[in-house]
Fold this protein.
Amino acid sequence: MSVPFYVSPEQVMKDKADFARKGIARGRAVVVLACADGIVFASENASRALHKISEIYDRVAFAAVGKYNEFENLRVAGVRYADLRGYSYDRSDVTARGLANAYAQTLGTIFTTESKPYEVELVVAEVGASAGEDQVYRLTYDGSVADEHGYVAMGGSAEQITARLAEGWRPGLGLEEALRLAVQALGSDAAAAAAGPGPRPIAADQLEAAVLDRSRTRRTFRRLSPAVLAAALGQDVPAETAGAPAGEGAPGPDTPPEPPA
């Protein structure tokens, strides 16, 4: 007679959490920080096809780290949620808070009922008419939601990057100042710490960056091209992007769907 195999619920949840955290930590980080002009998103990124930072609706954007196919499914679901809610009620009824609650329910259900949790962390952000009205929510693999203020870092080396953001961030940063701080923070990861003092330099064409621009009236999301980033960071403009229109560009996630981005 065989003895049934038993694992305590506490151990199952711990194993799932450890699995998800390890997958997320293998990816490169995303930084989100508030500034006077809106909310800035940045990630080190060599791909021009796969996006980790995306528009959801008029004043709402999405950023993610982890497995690309998993967070892309969530992004698409978020766009559908926003379109349906905006069409059924009013465009002003689409909020980051509502979207974060929907994502929390989905992630929480997957974490507790499925054998493998999603290996993702998300940020859902909404730009307000003033900095005090901005909303930034961070969601983890188990559906937990945190209301963030000022700045947030997700993914690999998040602790080192957050420490750098804490040193340099202050209310009222200009857009270029915020971009420089975001890139310096991304360059302060574990690889930079092992290489020596100072942040690791990151070229503009290796970055994906966008801003929810407070000055825009309706669709506030604006993707920043390598040329715009190079000018903000004081770098030479990449030759292949020198003629790209300001605000355009198509950088994407740092890795294909496998392993985690």
